[in-house]
Amino acid sequence: MPYFNRGVDSIDAIMIRIAKGALAAARQIPLGASAYMVVETAEILRRHGLTGIYSLVLRKEFVAAAELLRKVTGIERAWPLSVHDLTAAIFYALASKRLEVSE
Q: How many CA atoms lie within 13 A of 76 on its CB side?
């Protein structure tokens, strides 16, 4: 009788362990900015799939659009809002407009 049961190790499980190890090693090594972005993108892709990548891209585009809106409307001079405050204000306005339409 063997001391332990070796079991069956699938190719998928092996590849996942290799990817986790490579990402953990890459996080410990000092890398440049572009290499760091590759590691972060690979980590998000491994954890969340393509949905995570789409949300990352859309979040950056939304922050850029909010910054542009803040500059164009002159809000930054009159009322110093952060991007997070502006984002909350936009979602509040959208929700209140949706409530008006549904009533």
A: 9
Cα(10)–Cα(19) distance, integer angstroms: 14
**Every domain of the chain and the residues it spans:** 9-48, 51-103
Residue 64 · residue 72 · CB < 8 Å: no
Q: Each residue's pLDDT tens digit in the chain (103 positions)?
A: 567 666 777 888 888 888 888 888 888 888 777 777 778 778 877 777 777 777 777 777 777 777 777 777 676 666 666 767 777 777 787 788 888 877 6
| pTM for the predicted model, two decimal places | 0.39
